[in-house]
Each structure stands twice: as structure tokens, then as C-alpha cells.
Design brief:
The complex is a heterodimer of chains A (382) and B (388). Chain A is an alpha+beta fold and 382 residues long. Chain A folds into 3 domains: 7-115, Butyryl-Coa Dehydrogenase, subunit A, domain 1; 121-223, Butyryl-CoA Dehydrogenase, subunit A, domain 2 (Beta Barrel); 227-374, Butyryl-CoA Dehydrogenase, subunit A, domain 3, CATH 1.20.140.10. Helices cover 53% and strands 16% of the residues of chain A. Chain A has 10 helices and 10 strands. A 4-stranded mixed beta sheet of chain A has the order 1-4-5-8, with helices on one face. In chain A, a hairpin with a 2-residue loop joins strand 2 (140-144) and strand 3 (147-158). The two termini of chain A are 36 Å apart. Chain B is an alpha+beta fold and 388 residues long. Chain B folds into 3 domains: 7-120, Acyl-CoA dehydrogenase/oxidase, N-terminal domain (Butyryl-Coa Dehydrogenase, subunit A, domain 1, Orthogonal Bundle); 122-231, Beta Barrel (Butyryl-CoA Dehydrogenase, subunit A, domain 2); 234-381, Butyryl-CoA Dehydrogenase, subunit A, domain 3 (Up-down Bundle), CATH 1.20.140. The longest helix of chain B has 37 residues, at 232-268. The chains are: A alpha+beta (382), B alpha+beta (388).
Amino acid sequence: MEFALSEDQRMFRNMFRDFAAKEIAPRAEEIDHEETLPQDILRKAANQGFLGATLPEKYFGAELDGVSYAMLIEALAGACVSVALTVATHVSLVAMSILEHGTDAQKDEWLEAMAAGEVIGAFALTEPEAGSDGQAIATRATPDGDDVLLNGVKVWVGNGEIAGLFLVFAKGPEGIDAYLVPRDAPGLTVGYREPTLGLRSMFFNTVYLEDCQVPSANRLGGAGEGWTVAQKALDRFAIAVAAAGLGVAADAVDVAAQFATERVQFGVPIAKKQAIQNYIAEAHIEVEALRYLVYRTAWLADQGRDFSAEASVVKAFGARVARNVTNRMVQVMGGYGFMEDYPMARKYRDARMLGLVGGPTELHYVRVAQHIFAERDLEITP
Amino acid sequence: MDFTFSPEHQALRRMIREFAENEVAPLAAEIDREHRVPIETMRKLGEIGLLGVCFPQEYGGMGAGETGYCILMEELGRICTSTATNVGAHIGIGAMAIYLDGNEEQKRKYLTPLARGEKIAAFGLTEANAGSDAANIRTRAVREGDSWILDGGKVFITNGGYADIVTVLAVTDPALGPRGGITAFIVETQWEGFKVAREEDKMGIRGTSTAELVFEELRVPHENVLGKVGEGFVTFMKALDMGRLTLGAACLGGAQAALEWAIRWAKTRNQFGVALAHKQSVQWMIANMATEIEALRSLVYRVAWLVDTGRPFSQLAAMCKMYGSEVASRAIDMALQIHGGLGVTRDFPIERAFRDARIAEIFEGTNEIQRIVIAANIFRQHGVRIRP
């Protein structure tokens, strides 16, 4: 076993951290408060190659390996989880789905523009009546000559407001299909933006599809293969969400540990109190456990085998660690942890979202259990 | 043993619930969004006597005891944490210090208008370098003839931005420290030298005012010394004991609301062809929430009974605050999880409850301080003296 990062990975990690510290961290509080993601941040990320992070060089991607990509998301999330998951939605959910399932024409049409940040990807699966139960979607794809008409309502569409391309899932004649729907497709309307607890610089929108017309050639993958496309995308995204959890948790420990050395009560820095030491130590242990689980799962995903069970493991654990660690670090900071002009309250709000974004923890538990019991020839339904 | 509420307390609960649902609930989302204290609610609560719920009738109170006060806090906590917080800061610690240790004159002059809601109180203890270490305050009071001159400041003062009366703790003899050197004062905020320096921008309880107060040569007449000179720390700690119990009661209400939302949603929301209620993951959450809430309810009203019957309760009040805040946080977290996306959108009250709940583990003595209080009490009975 080799646990050391390669020379390249170390170099990338430093570059990611520099970028996050310089370009994102100083603005994180402001963009959270204003609930916006200024275009120049994404432009700068694109200039660094982050928006095509794992795409091949052929499409002007950075062709990062999985571990390096996880470290990118980790570093971005340390500064701002919204930015990290905006990038992860774009890369893991949309661009990589096109790379994996797309025709040459589809790849040529979209990937270069996505790597350059000219087109941002959005993922449109969830519906009002289909949350955890994604296969229960009611959106229809009806063939109409060389085109297809999409009808339905999607909610919680990540990146909706800023997207140029929507990966839309709909029921066609042979099952669930995936479609690449440009923003200017007739009949597509980006609507209500969710006012969220955390991830306030990310955009989650309702998207209306009313006789939305796209060429049949925009179907991504074969007829009826949409659910596979969605599952694989969500598996990739699960690792990215866990990496974001790692980033926000690790940074929370940093911030709180620094606070504990400076805050004096009862005549000593509170770091000298065992209760505070326990909070910090437990948090650090969880962060380290998560770190190697994230990197290992990211490495595994590069090996070309199915990693869906491992993706659920790391997602559930990552969300839990992020939530528990930020919760304890709020406590370390006392009243200052509750104030919005200190970073911990935002980290805590953001971290809580990770137990829902990309599927609730309970759904990932079902998937882990399915995997365990499948080895014992017992089928589990959610 | 009798675990039933008296008919009077049952009637009081019905009246409060009706008020909370009609007058408090419609404002809960708005005051959070607009970061605004609902002063109109405080006035209405005062008009119907609820801001004097636990004080004797001779001071404009309702005389419903600590049990009645816990009922008020539970019912308000069920509807709006901000409103419960405003009321708790006003009655539970602000006015309470005057009720506990004020003289007859002070009670007539200050407690009566506070009980009627004509004036609003705040409790001025915390300073920038005296949070958990409350005895480390630096605000100074120096005797000058018939007056005391106060210099210094307070931070994180609930109701601080709009209160009429603030009870302020200040050092009167630095050599003596908390044992004899700290005195409580009743300060009118209209007096010269009193300034609200800053309002905090908080994650939750955004319908409350959390202010930084500055005192510059603030002249306080000697008659406004609360209790005896040098004994202010004890007065403040006694008020905090009462506040801890009723904060536990407010948390009980918050947890109860979360359980009610979770049950309602688990019944209505269908996924995988069945209502969420049929999923064991959800059943476990509901069962755990309900069990903890029942344990908390028993604890809160048992301690209220201890107070009302004049028995010692300090250690149990610390448990109420600590356990109550953690039960509420856990219950609201689970309710949020059961609601999925609906749990994290500001269009639905759980998101607000999640932000509001977190402060209860921190303010009015962090839960770490409560654990120290509890452990110190226990070890004292076993001959061991604990220092924080």
C-alpha cells in the first residue's frame, strides 16, 4: 500500500489551497450573506482548469486523477462549500456524465465549453414527488419526429440559475432517459430559487419543462439507460460531497483550534481545558478518518470498477463528520460560533446540508445494506 | 405523588396556547427574515398579564408560580424561539433579579411596570472577557456621594438594544472579587452615559436583540443598588438558576414542535410507494425524539415544583438547561432530516428552528458550564471541591 501523495498531487494540492485562500476565502462571508456566486469566481476557477478538472486534455480539461480532484473539492470547501459543490455539480454530475455516456458529437459540442466555464452544467433529477425515490419521476419524454418533448417539473436543480446546460431525466417509452437540454431550449423555464439553510451561494431552482423541445440526438446514453446515468453521476458526486465535508470539517477544526488558543477564560486559554481538548481531539480523529476514506474511494473510482457501495459509505460518513465536527466547533467558539460575522455559523449551516444534498443519509444506508446483504443473496428494497 | 397540572395551570396553558397561535405564530417567520424584535408582542403579553406570570399579584403579577412560567416558556418555545427568548431575558433573568433581591421600593418602582410589560428588562452580566468565566467582569462602579459611577461595558446582552431597565453587574471592590467585591445595579437605559454600541448579526433567534452596551461615567443612585453592596454575584447566579429551568421549558416546546412537524410529514409524504411513517429509519427517529421529550417534560416540571415548594433546585436547573437544549437540538435535527429538502428551505419553519435551537447550548451558561456546575455539586457532596 502506498499512502503518500505523488509529486504532482502535492503540487496540485498546494495550488488548490492557494487559490481557495486567495480567491474565495476573503469573499466567503460576503457571498453567503448576499446569497450569490459572482461570475468572476467561476471564471477564475475556469482559468485554473478547475471546471474541466477531470476531463481529458483533448477537451481542454485538467485531466486530474480522482484523488487530486477530491483534494480540489476539499480545498474549495474549506473556504466555501457553495463554490465547491457548484464545481462538483458541474464536473461530477454533468460533464463527467457526458464524457462517460456521450457520443463523440455530444462530447465535442459541450465538453470544451464546459471546461472553459462558458457553459455551466445543472442536474435535474428530483421532483416534488420523487426525492429519495428517484425512479418515481413523473416527467415525460414523448417522441415527436426527430425531436422529443419533455414535460414535467424538476425541483432542487443544482446550479439551475447559472446553467447553460441541464441534464434532465424523464420517462420515455423504454424507461428513464437522460437528455442534454440547453438553457435556450423552447419550453424550459428556470423558476423559483430555494432560500436555503446553508449553501446560500449555490443555486437550487425549480425548472419547468412545458413541451420542451430537444432533438432526439440529445439523449445521453441509450433508451431507458437514464437511471444508470443518474446513478453513476450520483456515485461520483457522493465522493465529491464527502470531499466537501472533509474540507469544511478540517477548516472548522483549524479555525476553532486557533480560537481556543486565543480565548482566555478562568485565566488560561480555553485550549487548556479538557472539555475543549476532547472536542478538538474527537473532531481531528474524525477528520483524519474521513480524509483517508475520501482519498481511498476517489482512488478506487479511478480503477474502473463499480464503486457504488463505497460511494454511499463515504457520502454518509462525510456528511456525518461534517455535521458533527462543525457542531462541536461552534460549541468551542461559544457565542462567537453563533454570530454571522465569524465563519463558524456558516460552516455549520453549510455542513448540515451535506446530509441531504446528493441523497439523504438514510438512502445511502439502504444502499450500503443492499450491498452487504446482496453478498448473502438477500435482496433489499428501499 | 401527583403528576397532573392544576385546573388553573391547565386553563393558563389553554390561554397561552391560543395567544401563541394567534399572535405569535403569524410573526415568527417575518421577525426572523427582517431581523426585528416584535415589541408589539411583548406589549400584548404584558397587557394580558403574562409578563408577570410568576410574580405576586401585589407587583402586577399573575401569581402562577414557576410552574406557570414554565408553561408560558414551553408554549412560546413551541411556536417561536425568538419570542420565548425575549420573554425569558425579560422575566427569567432581567426582572427576576429584582424580584429575588430587590427591596420593597425597587419592586414597586421597577418590578411592577416590568410585570405589566410597560417596561422591558435585560440582564447585564457577560463581558468580552467574561463569558463562561462570569466572575472575571471588568465593569467598574465607584462610589461618589449618593451615587455610583459605572464605567465599562457588556456584550451579547439579550433585549439590550431596546430594554428600559438593565440589571448590571459591576466590580465595586477589585480586591475582594466575586466574594464581596461585585455589586448588582438597576440601570435605566435612558440615563446619560448608557449607550447601545452594536447589535449582533446572529445565525438564529433573529427576532431578538443581542447588543453590546457601553457605560461611560454612568451615574446610578445608591438606592438602585440591587441587594447588598458586594453581593451582586450571588443575586445574579440565583437569577440564572431560574433562567436555566425556564430555558429548559422553552427547549421542551421547541422539541415538541419538531416532533409534531415530523409526525405530520411522516404521515403525508410518500416515497417508494408508502408513507415515510412505514420506514423504520423514520420510526426510530420519532421514537427517540418522543422518549427524550417525555424525559425532559418530567424533569422541567419536577424542578418547577421544587421551586414552587421552596426546595433546593440549582443542580437540577443546570440539568434542565443542558439536557433541554440538547434534546431540542437533536429533535429538530431529526425533524429536519425527515423533511428532506423541505427541512432546509426558509419557506418552512424547521429551517428556522434549526438555526434558533443552536444558541440554547451556548447562552445562559454554556453546556460545558452546566456540566461543571452539576459535577461540582455532586463532588461537593463527596468532599471534593471542583474549580472550573
